[in-house]
Amino acid sequence: MSNGKADGKISRRDLFRVTGAAGAGLALGAGGYSALRGAGDETAALPGLQTVAFRDVHQAGMATAQQEHLHFAALDLVTEEISEVRDLLRAWSEAAERMTRGETAGDDNFSQFLPPDDTGEAFDLSPARLTLTFGFGPSFFEKDGEDRFGLADRRPVALAPLPPLTGDVLDEGRSDGDLCVQASADDPQVAFHAVRNLVRISRGLAVVRWSQLGFGRTASTSKTQATPRNLMGLKDGTNNIKAEDTDLMDQHVWVHEEDGPSWMVGGTYLVARRIRMLIEVWDRVSLGEQETSIGRHKYSGAPIGKDDEFDPVDLEAKDENGEPLIAADAHVRLARRSDEEKILRRGYSFTDGFDAERGQLDAGLFFISFQRDPHKQFVPLQQRLAANDRLNEYIRHTASALFACPPGAHESGYVGETLLEQA
Amino acid sequence: MSNGKADGKISRRDLFRVTGAAGAGLALGAGGYSALRGAGDETAALPGLQTVAFRDVHQAGMATAQQEHLHFAALDLVTEEISEVRDLLRAWSEAAERMTRGETAGDDNFSQFLPPDDTGEAFDLSPARLTLTFGFGPSFFEKDGEDRFGLADRRPVALAPLPPLTGDVLDEGRSDGDLCVQASADDPQVAFHAVRNLVRISRGLAVVRWSQLGFGRTASTSKTQATPRNLMGLKDGTNNIKAEDTDLMDQHVWVHEEDGPSWMVGGTYLVARRIRMLIEVWDRVSLGEQETSIGRHKYSGAPIGKDDEFDPVDLEAKDENGEPLIAADAHVRLARRSDEEKILRRGYSFTDGFDAERGQLDAGLFFISFQRDPHKQFVPLQQRLAANDRLNEYIRHTASALFACPPGAHESGYVGETLLEQA
Questions:
Q1: What is the ipTM score, two decimals?
Q2: DSSP B152
Q3: Residue A104 φ/ψ region, left for φ over 0, alpha for ψ in the -120 to 50 degree band, beta for the rest
Q4: What is the number of other CB atoms lying within 10 angstroms of the CB of residue B194?
Q5: Which of B32, B226, B234 sits opposite A29 (nearest CB)?
Q6: pLDDT of residue A14
Q7: Which of B43, B199, B207 sits opposite A35 (nearest CB)?
Q8: CA atoms of A338 and B238, how far apart (whole Å)
Q9: Residue pair B415/B135 in contact by the 8 Å Cβ criterion
Q10: pLDDT at B128
Q11: Across residues A162-189, what is the average pLDDT?
């Protein structure tokens, strides 16, 4: 049977060049395509606009200007051999590097007698600024009291499981996991493709424990991005650390030598929280109550009594009757971080449809944050919010996970090497 | 409490103009934004690029060049009063017209003492070519033998429930429904916002029965669009009717006077099928088997033995041994439509995560088609495929629905008026 092609290999990027503007249109969404039609094909085909390097000091997908779509997966290992874990993480890094460049996951795609190395659905899409970020959960090191891979003594103190938090109603099946993959891209099909192919590579060694799709990022991680709105209709993440603030990133996000362990230096910790919004309840309360709960004006995003989103929050301000403009239990008051508690947020909105029993929207915020020590940054902040935040009436934390994300892969290495090769 | 704004009303589009390129960047996705940054703000802010008229002879969302994202919802009515159904459909059309223009769903958004008419999460997003398409299911007319609204005799013959199809494994909870809303847009948050606000308007009158998110369209409905790939990695919908083929649209999609009933003239019928792909099985078979199953080359999309996607399918062609190049059970052979069976496809890929039991991807194709008579077009085609298509080994039809989509709303009317006002 002829395969209708030369026998030589073809990369996604090769094809992208060939298809030109039409391929770019697919990748950018039809809006992008319409807008680009007048702009000339060259711009659209410039790969530099669409790729984020996989290999770097830190893993990509943290300081990267946040992409529009998320596909997150947590996996549990079924292998008991550390050598197989090494093989898996190396294979993941190799495939990740290829896919983030816009190439296929593997290079054997044209033999008629074998399954293709790549599943093909991103074949003529742009790289879409894909980033792939890997992490190790607490259970990777120890599960049911068992030191699984002889690495229990290398588990960072900062990776101790999160303590129970007030108000949590956690679904275990959507929480935790031995390993995680965060795929972010500007095209949902590119993010899906990446997770699917990584999961495929892990077959026999790991199984997916849970996954989450996200859209409409709920924070900005770059000064080039406007503040987006979450599904409460509120601007979210106004005071987020921005990647351009390298001093703040260094101080609050990246693990330092003195923090230990050495394999995590240049890495960071990822906290994920699936926060369901009680949409139907929220939608029935007045604008005044919505604004009081958050402590900001809904449309401008300005602190109550101010005009501009970026006006500083003045917790002392009083109205004409001497009452605080920002309520004692307003979210912005309680979420006001001490310097130590600053974190890099990188969450997304999600909707998983309507629940079958009551026909209510299962939707909300898939909160992701990166920090140098979750127990010193995320936990105290969340404890304060969980106890008193007026927003609690409108949200439920339904899942939780914590992962140690090691530093980035060097030129011939892989993510996780600092942990696994020294064992 | 000050609301930090003038008391005058503000539309989403007003705000869009103010925020300029930043707002457009949110709407186009970061890829679009990156590409646009060099192109000047004026292009980005041109609303003409981003809006599709709600009022027209036909409903929008059929002949409209297919957008990148889908949010589909089916609802069951809980009211028994036809007057309330009229009120609901009128309110839906009014909100739909506003939202497709990029405005808020309602205009009372600034009273501190009331819930806002609009939920706000699309407030500073572009209209994103949003279309909203409404339909009536068979159960709207008759349910459990009961003529619910005195309209049973107006049910079109073409809206008879679909017959059982070979191989169907249908989940009733994801099938059927009294009413449907198809929201398509180039921004998933805009599609989500539209469905959420329409559902909110229906509160007390209807409840959501099921919903489906989709991405990465699996057909092209316009000659300006390249053929996309489905999650099998195959180009899908190469021979779809294109909206520019007005003769074909007229012949195969729109209901004519002689078809009856008169309230459906200018309308069409929507078939939705949730087709789960057995991804793990598909991914393990050889490229040869994949290509034999579909009858096309995977990467080029060309018919087996040909070079170009748009080369005609030659079912008589033989290889050097005299065997048919396109197998007897290949999808393209069986899916080859007689003239009467042509349909307008407008489906999307979906993924609803991994199933809990076996860790396998719950993903596939949410097939949507529009046709003049589903029983003469969709049903015979699907019966043929269900009986013999080699692809059946790799797919399961897990849900099914059928809706009558009336003509578009005229200037002061609403979608459904032709049915409901003559009652």
A1: 0.89
A2: G
A3: beta
A4: 26
A5: B32
A6: 47
A7: B43
A8: 57
A9: no
A10: 95
A11: 95
| Residue B91 clears pLDDT 80, i.e. is over it | yes
Length of chain B: 423
Q: pLDDT tens digits, residue range A54-98?
A: 999 999 999 999 999 999 999 999 999 999 999 999 999 999 999
Task: Identify residue B124 by its one-letter amino acid code.
Answer: D
CB of A190 within 8 Å of any CB in chain B?
Answer: no
Pairs from B143-152 (Cβ < 8 Å, separation ≥ 24): B143/B178, B148/B77, B148/B80, B149/B80, B149/B82, B149/B85, B149/B423, B150/B82, B150/B423, B151/B82, B151/B419, B151/B423
Looking at residues B80-106, what average pLDDT do you find?
97
- Indicate the pTM of the whole model: 0.90
Place of tokens 């070979």: B166
Record: contact A1-B234, CB cut-off 8 A: no
Give the pLDDT score at A41: 33
Q: Give me the pLDDT at residue A392, please.
A: 94
DSSP string covering B216-270? EESS--STTS---B-TTS-B--TT---TT-HHHHHHHTS--TTTS-GGGTT-EEE
The token pair at B77 is 């009515």
Cβ-based contacts of B302 with chain A (< 8 Å): 4
Domain extents for chain A? 50-420
Q: Which amino acid is at B221?
A: T
pLDDT digits (tens, 9 = 90+) for A195-215: 999 999 999 999 999 999 999
User: How many beta-carbon pairs below 8 A join chains A and B?
Assistant: 313
Residue A167 burial class via C-beta count within 10 angstroms: exposed 0-12, middle 13-18, buried 19 and up: middle
Candidates B5, B50, B297; nearest CB to A5: B297
Residue of chain A nearest B214, judged by CA positions: A188
